[in-house]
Specification:
This protein has helices at about 5-25, 25-45, 50-55, 60-65, 65-70, and strands at about 70-80, 90, 105, 110-120, 125-130, 135-140, 145-155, 155-165, 175, 190-195, 205-210, 220-225. With about 230 residues, the protein is of the alpha+beta class.
Length: about 230
């Protein structure tokens, strides 16, 4: 007869055995890593579909796909973060040996994260779009209204600059990169408008945007090669 306490522990033993098998199986670990990267690549390529639908340019997609889709993207991992709370910088495990360049756009699976600002041989530094020194030309996906999204060193909030009281920008509007300024490709998700406040007598409206990207959570990122390469700096 099997002791009752032993029978009761069988599920736990099986669970521990399976867990041990999984963590000690390099093939499963490699497959899991491959699936994570593959999923990230698919999400990155799908980010601009919202703009395509809004502009109703299926014909343009057929005739000029190279202009609308990502030419080359490279998966990278976050290996460090700034120790100063108000400085929103990351370190990634790609560098000059991977042809990374200053100004290169960086995404996560949900939207724009930032851009490369320093390149070394085996790693690079990325300035997030939420940093207080960063400003990004954007537009409202719904109607094309242009503005500039400015970081305020808050991972969860950005602000739109110089928004006129008559501007057609509403809570819930999706904000995407406009492509102006030759810094970021057009059409990538930046965030969602969460508030609009027009103070009496003010010349401009206060508009807050919640970033689409998971600024302080994402570990796997995408580097976009868009043909505007500049020499890396050290």
């Amino acid at each position: 007869m099997i002791p009752i306490h032993y029978v009761a522990s069988i599920p736990e033993k099986i669970s521990l055995g399976v867990s041990k098998f999984i963590f000690n199986n390099p093939d499963l670990e490699n497959e899991n890593r491959r699936l994570i990267q593959e999923n990230l690549l698919y999400k990155g390529k799908a980010q601009r579909l919202g703009e395509l639908e809004a502009e109703n340019i299926s014909l343009r997609l057929l005739l000029n796909a190279s202009e609308l889709l990502i030419d080359t993207i490279l998966v990278t991992e976050v290996i460090g973060v700034s120790a100063t709370p108000r400085v929103h910088k990351l370190r990634i495990n790609r560098g000059r040996q991977d042809n990374i360049y200053v100004g290169q756009p960086v995404l996560d699976a949900e939207g724009l994260m930032g851009q490369v600002v320093e390149v070394y041989e085996k790693f690079s530094s990325v300035l997030l779009i939420t940093d207080s020194t960063h400003a990004l030309p954007v537009k409202v996906l719904r109607n094309g209204t242009r503005s500039v999204a400015e970081g305020i060193s808050d991972f969860n909030t950005m602000k739109l600059r110089f928004v006129s009281p008559t501007s057609d920008i509403k809570v819930g509007d999706k904000i995407v990169s406009s492509g102006l300024g030759d810094r970021f490709p057009a059409g990538y998700p930046v965030g969602i408008v969460t508030s609009r406040d027009h103070k009496t007598g003010a010349n401009f409206v206060d508009v807050e945007v919640e970033p689409s990207a998971q600024m302080n959570k994402s570990k796997h990122l995408l580097l976009v090669f868009d043909g505007r390469k500049t020499d890396g700096q050290k």
